[in-house]
Amino acid sequence: MPPLRIGAVEYLNARPLVYGLEQHPRFDVRFDLPARCAELLHAGDTDLGLIPSIEFQRGPRGAGNYRIVPNVAITSRGTVASVAIFTTRDMKDVRSIALDTSSRTSVALTRVMCARVFGIEPVFATHAPELHEMLAEADAALVIGDKALFLNPGPMQVGEGANVRTVQVEKIDLGELWLTTTGLPFVYAFWAGRSDALGPDDVRTLVETRDRSLTLRREIAESYYPGDPARQDVAERYLRDNIKYDLGGDERAALERFYHYAAEAGAIARVVAPTYFENPS
Q: pTM of the full predicted structure?
């Protein structure tokens, strides 16, 4: 059989799902930003993608032609630390939000929270994830991934030259906000591919990779931030305390809730019910 072409997210939170797969003869792994992983899968350039959960609804072949690998996902139940809105004013007063170009699911989640929780209709604009630049142009900014993990709230200088000013920045954790709003975990990304892409042995390998990696959090943190013990400590805590990797009943319910809210907020055109690869015995 030819190798299975896999598009994997390059962020720290995805490493427990791929750690060791690069050496597996069955898998040909490439690493990209979450949005790019979705683009490659939609274009047929990968067989399986660790895609933003919202992208299940957007494939050019139609979401019904994708299936999700059961039991495995990138999720949180409460504070996620790496998906956040950084705002310079109370959210009810925010009129513009800069959106991280790396993100798809978190952009949709931001739209949902603006509509359902904050009751605002801000202007959205995509921007490279550089917080000081984003806040120079907008009242708030969505930043995800490793950059968001190491950004702290507090005073920050934004703008350039004569336009430099100091603003007070608050960090709103979207994983925590979703749990408070719904009582459910949140599903950020999962493995998805065409319905004929994977066999039971492939699904089993992906689940076993997750299970093994969760015993190697320190090793993963050290390999991700070599020579930087302080960041290794943060990374290990993050992988242990913030990010979860299950896709069980609560997560499936949360996913369907998110899709319906996203449709109501205009982030997707319609809702297609998630379908899953067969759960190997």
A: 0.94
